[in-house]
Amino acid sequence: MSYCPSCRSTLKSEQKFCHVCGVAIMEMPLMEATGIYGSRLQLFEKKIRISREGWLGSFAHGLKGDKDILISQLSSIQFKRTGLFTNGYVQFVFQGSHESKGGLFDATKDENSIMFTKKQEPDFFSIKEEITRRMETTQGRDSSNLDELEKLDALRRRGIITDAEFEAKKKQLLGL
Ligand SMILES: [Zn+2]
User: Fold this and answer.
1) What is the rounded distance in angstroms from the CA atom of residue 132 to the CA atom of residue 53?
2) Cα(28) to centroid(ligand 1), Å
């Protein structure tokens, strides 16, 4: 449970503004790592954010601003360690992301990748481990919710629970 820093009313986790006094709520990342050209990877409760700041960051990528990806949407993470003379990178693959179609993958031009130096690598490694752990938990929970929903649907078909009871439980399980 968190509270508005200004009026102390209770907040939901994903709230950007306090609904009572209107003050902006800072979203505090759980973990964060800074890569090359001022790029940054942040981990929040339910999502990750890739940010590119400053002229160099946008120039190198031809992209600007922040990109949020829900952890539940991630299908895999590619982690390339740094070499003797090469930077490493972390790439996020999710439903709808453009995976490199054959040929050489160019992390400098991929909007879902962040490059890092050897010195920055430990931070990226630990944030990658934590995201992976959260992906497994999220996906495990999703599939057990689905199992439960199927059981409830069977009960509904047999008339043991009503349609309304089923709908209420469905909304709760899917977080609608
Ligand atoms: Zn407030």
Assistant:
1) 25
2) 17
**Which amino acid does the sequence have at 16?**
K
User: What is the CA(22)–ligand 1 centre distance, in A?
Assistant: 6
- Cα of 53 vs centre of ligand 1, distance in Å, is 30
Which among 41, 35, 42 has a CA at the least distance from the CA of 56? 35
How far, in Å, from the CA of 135 to the mean position of ligand 1?
32
45-57 residue pLDDT tens: 889 999 887 555 4
CA of 24 to the centre of ligand 1 (A): 8
Residue 64 CB coordination number (10 Å)? 14
Q: Which string of DSSP letters, residue by residue, matches 68-131? A: EEEGGGEEEEEEE---SSS-EEEEEEETT-----SS---GGG-TTEEEE-TTTHHHHHHHHHHH
The Å distance, Cα 35 to ligand 1 centre, comes to 34
Residue type, 3: Y
Q: Which residues of the chain have pLDDT under 50?
A: 57
- Does this model's pTM top 0.90? My answer is no
Ligand 1 centre to CA of 29 (Å) is 20
Distance from residue 2's CA to the centre of ligand 1 (Å): 11
Q: Which domains does the chain have, with CATH numbers?
A: 28-131 (2.30.29), 141-174 (no CATH)
